[in-house]
Amino acid sequence: MGRPSALTSRQVNLALEVLVLAALLTGVSSWAVGDRWGGWFVVGHGVAGVALVLLAPAKLRGSVRTGFRRGRSTRWISAAFGVMVLVTVALGVLHATGLWSGVGPWSALWTHSLVGFALVPLFVWHLVTRPVRHRATDLDRRAVVRSGLLLGAAAGVYVAQETTTSLTGLAGGSRRGTGSHEVASGDPTQMPTVSWFDDRRPDVTDADAWQLTIAGRVVAINELRARTRPVPAVLDCTGGWWSEQSWDAVALADLLVDPSGHSVRVRSATGYDRLFGLDALDGIYLAVGYGGEPLRPGHGAPVRLVVPGRRGPWWVKWVTSVEPDDRPSWMQPPLPLA
Where are the extended beta strands (E) located within 145-303? Predict the structure, then answer.
């Protein structure tokens, strides 16, 4: 049987490039898709991370050693890139096992994500400054077989890690398929308060004076409160936690009668917004509270969106308007850019 380390230097570089791209794409996709499919991307992300670690010795024995012998002035940038890849993988493992949850708002998964995004410009720089002319022989039969063995070994290590985590009773053993840990279900007072990137919580002093417009009509928060019903739903945050609450909410379908256009645009006081298809309005809600009490400011008070089955970025907070839109819902980035 072949071994991953038997790959040539060019083949190792090609494999690493593919794995870094795969790790990035599967990681972002696990946020963008709903709960139903997110788990498959999480598995792919984990396998890609393990494969990167398994290939690291071959990279060290090959081009890294050669590059340092040549004394290139940028060799330390390349070294930093490699170290950051390993740090990213290590943070992912700490989150997956539950051995370290992070410090304050800096969860292990969020830190893992930030370091991963910081790798992108270094990855591009590495490709530009270290161009490798790949040949057809780099994808010969032996290379394909050895790459398959590498992925098989990575999958085996990933399964072993998940099994060990579960059998030893570590916190990571009870994660959702999305990879998130349970936090404060049924207790909104302990639910974390987080925002998407540069969102800043607005100063809400009087909920009754909040300006909410639905299809061109101003709707008072008290009017929404009178129409709410309990809606059990899981908020699965991209920061690596999930929490199930009973939301006091009203379906958008009950608030928008025969909306025009192709979608509905839900906008926050921060400028953040998301588009939703008209066929999904029965399963999307405006919430003004949870468990019979009003929302807290950090949780989107006085009114926020509840979108069962979708990840946190779709749960728009501090909603100011719900309006029909001529654009179809697919005409937006899979994740907000700001």
Answer: 181-182, 213-214, 217-218, 229-236, 241-251, 263-268, 273-277, 285-290, 293-294
